[in-house]
Amino acid sequence: MEKEEVVLLDFWASPFGMRARIALAVKGINYEHKEEDLSNKSGLLLKTNPVLKQIPVLIHNGKPVCESLIVVQYIDEVWPHRSPLLPLDPYQRATARFWADFVEKKICSLESRKIWAAKGEEHEAAKKEFIESLKLLEGELGNKAYFGGENLGYVDVVLVPMYSWFYAYEKCGNFSFETECPKLVAWARRCLEQESVSKSLPDQEKIYEYALQLKKRFGFE
Amino acid sequence: MEGAVVLLDFWPSMFGMRTRIALAEKGIKYEYREEDLRNKSDLLLQMNPVHKKIPVLIHNGKPVCESLIQVQYIDEVWNDRAPLLPSDPYKRAIARFWADFVDKKIYDLGSKVWKTKGEEQETAKKEFIESLKLLEGELGDKAYFGGENLGFVDVALIPFYSWFYAYEKCGNFSIEAECPKLIAWAKRCMQKESVAKSLPDKEKVYEFVLHLKKVYGIE
């Protein structure tokens, strides 16, 4: 077996970083995890992602791959023989990519930040749209155990990191995801039974503390 | 592989142009249907209920939405000719990165260039040019981003070239003066029939932008 050197530049609270962690764990790949201080980015981060200067960055045998969705697809293509994340059929792949893109646009957008970072009208509008988007995802999940069918797939990996932020959203926004989207919460808990997921997501209380810190720091009060 | 292919599209859409180019590169016959975006067809609303946007590629009755997803789908289904993505996973990741960069930067910044004025427009112009220069850097000495032939990034970016004239007129600047290598690349792409037949005339796009400015009350 050839020597593989895999490094992940990451930030513990980042849902984007969590995607890469889950994909690596699902494939059983040993890697070096490097925690970045986003207020003081390392020379390595700035060198390996000069265009966007963001984590996660996957460095495989010295070569960087940036953007979490691209990182997950890369991992799936380099290690195709274990736990495939994307289906083989082109139409099913297009559908998986569509819903991953939907998560990016609707669940992980700057707008959704307003659920915990804003108040009043802005918060209410953001919350309403967010719940509607989660309901569309529930529709796509249907009666399947996972978006990927009987096993974790691409959309599961892309979406489940947001679950670690749900508690923070609920506390800041005074509502319950379980009331609004019980099927999705059931799906998320099912994912957390998988070690690759439970080991990759931080504790939701810690995320809530972090969200409170951000609110203070940026004056969202 | 065979089967009916329909494209729901709108003539000035850069996103629709990507799919047109990909279909042309692969030599796929398809039915082009022009949508009136102020009066979207039932078919569009049925095929893309989530976003209600064009382009929508319908293959054997099944819809594929989002232009970059369509281009990858076309590349994977008709995988015996004119490959758009490289076969090496690392090179694929690089191609996806730059196509994603085009989506993140070029559309929004270009829109700001024609929609805004004064300080806001100057900032948009500056960032727009900076982004094009980064793309020039990625192109390097290659004929195309895909190497010796059109690739994924070429298909993702070249549609914006049909809007450059409108950006230049609205923003009162010359993209060629700032990014000559990129313009040279664009002209090289335009020599390909798959591209030339897929991009609308730049004057028509400019007229369309002027019309939009009126509609939105932008002066």
UniProtKB/TrEMBL annotation, chain A:
Keywords: Cytoplasm, Detoxification, Transferase. GO terms for cellular component: cytosol. Transmembrane segments: none annotated. Residues 4-83 form the GST N-terminal domain. GO terms for molecular function: glutathione transferase activity. Gene3D superfamilies: 1.20.1050.10, Glutaredoxin. Its EC number is 2.5.1.18. It is found in: Cytoplasm, Cytosol. GO terms for biological process: glutathione metabolic process; toxin catabolic process. It catalyses: RX + glutathione = an S-substituted glutathione + a halide anion + H(+). PROSITE patterns: GST_CTER, GST_NTER. It comes from the Eukaryota. Residues 89-218 form the GST C-terminal domain. It is an enzyme of class 2 (transferase). Belongs to the GST superfamily. Tau family. This is glutathione transferase. It comes from Hibiscus syriacus (Rose of Sharon).
TrEMBL record, chain B:
This is glutathione transferase. Belongs to the GST superfamily. Tau family. GO terms for molecular function: glutathione transferase activity. It is found in: Cytoplasm, Cytosol. GO terms for biological process: glutathione metabolic process; toxin catabolic process. It comes from the Eukaryota. It comes from Hibiscus syriacus. Keywords: Cytoplasm, Detoxification, Transferase. The keyword Cytoplasm applies. Its EC number is 2.5.1.18. InterPro entries: Glutathione-S-Trfase_C-like (IPR010987), Glutathione-S-Trfase_C_sf (IPR036282), Glutathione_S-Trfase (IPR040079), Glutathione_S-Trfase_N (IPR004045), GST_C (IPR004046), GST_C_Tau (IPR045074), Omega/Tau-like (IPR045073), Thioredoxin-like_sf (IPR036249).
